[in-house]
């Protein structure tokens, strides 16, 4: 009898460790579902009595502004809460039944509801300005968080770190190619909807955009922990051409969703700076060269195009067609890249960074001095070259509004289509170069220049090619920027400033998005340009915000938001041994082998 009891005890599984709150799992699941439903219902109530708060949250039965964002967060919380009830069809949302995705998504609803309540009280002068709907939202959104904290702890004994660490996920189920393409299409459509909603928020409604960011960051974090974004990235890699085509189509559709040409202007500037960041990514991300004066190449291209594009303030009475002006800007930037890179690329590390920083400042001071007084009249000094005409391509004037299929596309929408084409060309050049023999040489130089040189790679020539190619891509973007802005002047082309473009902005876009990737700089430029644009009060503290963002990034995700596999292995412990375990042979083994 004793032996049987011992054997039974040994094979009994240990109960899962509970979370910080001592509630039964059934009660925790019920709390999550009830809180999510309450959050959704609260968005149909009035949250304040006055329409003075952004979004007009006074209407019953019609969510608006932050209420819409809270409604989406509540719906996501309900979906992930129902995955714990094994509801059929919802299993793929959380394959491992992990706790952390549920907690993070519940926190997104909690964050937006409580932020809204606090913002109403602060902006309007006290809690008396909150209607019952706001109190219901704040109370209901707290319930899923409490319920998630009562679920089994993802890593017992690790405390908060266990909730923040990405849990292991089971091997995903194999889908047919058609199903994978359908999933990619749905994901791309959702990304377009989210981006369109975010960029469509009024610039004066900072509170609404902050709520949007809170939900976007926390919900995306939850989807990462659930393994959905990794699964989407894997499927996109399997169908790379299809996914790239869909992303391009989504970008083409974007102008047709906007009634305000100002949003198209934001899109044009994002694409211009993203294109320049991709060129810098060749130098910094692939080759590992720290360039602190890269914005000067953008300025060289912009000034070269302005001088030959028919402006009446240009000292040269010439008017090149756009293709010739673009080639002129690229060629000028390439020549400057070679001239600057030739004597400086034999330097390494901090010394190279200091030299490139000096080149950026020399360019700005030089164009500021070519005003006819301090030097020859070429750039008109601080006044710049103005009245640059709009681009005409095959008789199609990009400066005029055009009606297409009942939609009126304004000036900036036309330039957005042009920049989409240029961005596609730059992405193609980047990917083909990175996958080529020269691209592998860049990566070898980045990893260890001494070892690469010892293996026969001409380090100077390889680095000079990277420098020249990155400069020419920046010059191409500069030619379009000169026409979009109607003018060029020296003020933006500095190392750091309150508004882009500047070298610090471009470098932050590459580091934040993910060095060495294609989509990383695109995302980094979008975030760094869109956030100050929508949060007007941050414009005076842009450098502080940049620094804070980079500190947080280096602490929690040093490889960037979108990172390649190599950099993830460099910065995170994966349990994979890079070096086989070394064992020392004992004397006995050596003697016996010798004796044999």
Automatic annotation (TrEMBL):
Region: Disordered, residue numbers: 1-21
Highest taxon above the source species: Bacteria
InterPro entries reported for this sequence: ABC_transp_permease (IPR001851), LivM-like (IPR043428)
Cellular compartment(s): Cell membrane
Pfam family of the protein (one): BPD_transp_2
Topology with respect to the bilayer: Multi-pass membrane protein
Transmembrane segments: 26-47, 59-82, 102-122, 134-151, 182-202, 208-229, 241-258, 264-284, 289-308, 320-339, 412-431, 464-484, 504-531, 538-556
Annotated protein name in UniProt: Branched-chain amino acid ABC transporter permease
Keywords of the record: Cell membrane, Membrane, Transmembrane, Transmembrane helix
